[in-house]
Each structure stands twice: as C-alpha cells, then as structure tokens.
Amino acid sequence: MASEDLAIPERDRLPMGTCKPDYVYVVMTLLHKDLHKLRADMPDRKFTFSTSLRLAMQTFNAIEELHSIGYISRDIKPGNFAPGHKSTREGKTIFMYDFGLARRYVDKDLSRRDDIENRAQVYAAKLAAREGDGRAHFLNDTPPQYNMLLTWIDGLVFEDTPPYSKFYNMLDGLREERKIRMHERWDWEEETSTVTSRSDTEGPP
C-alpha cells in the first residue's frame, strides 16, 4: 500500500521507502512489541479486563480506517497490532501493521465482515479455536455485550458495511459501566508515580 494511504494514526506509517535493482526496503515507525508478545509476557498470558477492552476499541477503529480506504487486511491477529514505542508520546496508541495480505475488498475471496469477525473472535476468547465447543463455553463469565457483538457480526452478509459505530458504542458503554478510563496504564507499562485505577478482572486475550 502507498505510504500516503497509511498516514492515519492507528495504522503504522511508512515514512520512507525505495526500490533498487537488487532489493526493496521500507523504513517504518518504531513500535513496541506486538500484542501477541506483550500478552505472552503477562502473568498467566492474559491481559486485564481494562486493557483487553481498550485494545478492542482501538483495534476496531484501526480496522475501520483500513476499510475506509477500500482495503481489507485478511490477516487480523494480535501479532499485527502494536502500541507506539514506549519512548514516544504514542505509547497509548495501538497501531495496525503488516499489510502483506491486504487486498481491495472488491475481490470475491474475503469481505470487510471477515476482518471484523476475525478480530471479534480473537477478542472473545478465540471462539472458533476448539472444534466441538460452543460459544456459550467460551463466553462463560464474560459480559453479555460480547455475545451481542458476535451476534451482530453473524448477521452480516458479504457485501454489508459493518456498523462500526454500533460496535464501538457498545464497547464504550461497557467501558463506562466498568468505570474504566481510556488513558489508564496498559498492563505492559511500567509503574509510575501517578496512581491509576485498573480493573483486576481478567479479560480475554
């Protein structure tokens, strides 16, 4: 994808690139570890509910922005999202990167629905990961909004434009219900002198 297409905050910027006879290189914004690695560093390999919910909100926004310029990722997974580097002011922003499989969604193989569904399934405990177990098993002890989100997505057909604002507002309502602040410390951030409240309830990966 062209660098000008990627100059939106939640998608990793490509400030410089070139093509030489023998090689191609791209210089990318320096980011933190990806979400898969950050989660693996956590106790019990899980994020708290606060971090999980805010990650869902930011990653859904990033997917919407990618779709807004006519592309689908086809490779939505925690390893393709990362916060800004901890040494910068963008440490609170989650970036989407690695567009090697991205295509314009006029193609007939995958749709915008698939990107949204993949992200929702990762967020809601990877519902399709274990053959034979139903949704109720994986949504046990989670807020009812998770099941509502997946039900909305299940109702979409190939050509539908996902109701992004509906998804976001549902998650934001859950955030307010749990009294979670948007700029609370991420689980992977070091403790600072500023005390921030955080839910101790563990959320899905």
TrEMBL record:
<dbReference type="GO" id="GO:0004672">
    <property type="term" value="F:protein kinase activity"/>
</dbReference>
<dbReference type="GO" id="GO:0005524">
    <property type="term" value="F:ATP binding"/>
</dbReference>
<feature type="domain" description="Protein kinase">
    <location>
        <begin position="1"/>
        <end position="205"/>
    </location>
</feature>
<dbReference type="InterPro" id="IPR011009">
    <property type="entry name" value="Kinase-like_dom_sf"/>
</dbReference>
<dbReference type="InterPro" id="IPR050235">
    <property type="entry name" value="CK1_Ser-Thr_kinase"/>
</dbReference>
<protein>
    <recommendedName>
        <fullName>Protein kinase domain-containing protein</fullName>
    </recommendedName>
</protein>
<dbReference type="InterPro" id="IPR000719">
    <property type="entry name" value="Prot_kinase_dom"/>
</dbReference>
